[in-house]
């Protein structure tokens, strides 16, 4: 019998016997893992609750106050997922949309409340990423428990995102992109019999201003995170200009090479790299090298050219990914450079294609969350997140949530930054 590895990795095994022995083995493994998983979960939960019984109380300004934030249990190297979920839970418009969606009872009868194996033959109709994402967001910020276990969401992720199966460390940025893309696609298909557009229309501030569509009709994902880039390419031989508009959910920024040896903010040799340096590197005019020759339609052959990006439309939430991991001949190295970033007043006007068409407040952004990677490689290390909630900064480290301050946040070596568009009534600090 071939492909026995399929029993553990959830691949679909085609060559079953006439007596269905493969399926019997699968069911036996399921029963064993369910019982072991349940026992282990109860043991870990008891230890966590006992050890952190008093951790929900903090002293703020001399008085004792309760932390309403809830941590997320690590299910086995799932800190990459926890950091992204905690960050998204603090994007107020985005989070509120999902929390207000109607609930769906996906499982009943024998499988209610149990982990189940899924095969490709079962299809995807019995799982909903939107529903499990909604339930996870609802569990956070209630203050009713020290930590929530996102196991149901994680196994839906396993089902629909095969890249994230298993318990090895994953890239938080890659996970965020997959998560947003799949939420977007599921919302496009309709959720619980209700079209996403009908729900989106209830929030006019999202639907009226949203003009960025990625892969079809708009959803709350594109309404919140969606922006548009203009990609401008010029042939250096004949001067022909080519323009292309590309929608985006986040911007991936290189850390300029001249800063890559500077690992800390207080290191004396040379200037500190700033977020503005990374944005400037992204939008500056660039001459393409020999491996990226542009096919000029006027010259009718590949020619040397220049490329420049402009932002044609800014999103409501600007997600900036700092490219800290780079492939070498044999491995993926980390750029550990400290990048200075503002907590408030990030001014994006100078990167706009038509800045004169934007009001002074429309280009200012305030920081909502930061994802940090600790360690030396993408396949190892640990992810945590900082996020602000009701004027206070919190540090999310899996099950542990602690109150922190702005001075600590700005010292972090950011990997992903979430900036929220400032409302007109806010102040006018600028980067």
TrEMBL record:
EC assignment = 3.4.19.12
- Which InterPro entries does the entry link to? Papain-like_cys_pep_sf (IPR038765), Peptidase_C19_UCH (IPR001394), Ub_carboxyl-term_hydrolase (IPR050185), USP (IPR028889), USP_CS (IPR018200)
Q: What GO cellular-component annotations does this UniProt entry give?
A: nucleus
- Cross-referenced Gene3D superfamilies: Cysteine proteinases
Domain USP span(s) in chain numbering: 70-422
A molecular function (GO) held by this record is: cysteine-type deubiquitinase activity
Q: What does this protein do?
A: Deubiquitinating enzyme that removes conjugated ubiquitin from specific proteins to regulate different cellular processes.
EC class of the enzyme, as a word: hydrolase
What keywords are assigned to this protein? Hydrolase, Protease, Thiol protease, Ubl conjugation pathway
Q: Specify the protein name.
A: Ubiquitin carboxyl-terminal hydrolase
Catalytic activity, reaction form: Thiol-dependent hydrolysis of ester, thioester, amide, peptide and isopeptide bonds formed by the C-terminal Gly of ubiquitin (a 76-residue protein attached to proteins as an intracellular targeting signal)
Q: Name one Pfam family in it.
A: UCH
Recorded family membership? Belongs to the peptidase C19 family.
Write down the PANTHER family for this protein, in alphabetical order.
UBIQUITIN CARBOXYL-TERMINAL HYDROLASE, UBIQUITIN CARBOXYL-TERMINAL HYDROLASE 3
Q: Which GO terms describe its biological process?
A: protein deubiquitination; proteolysis
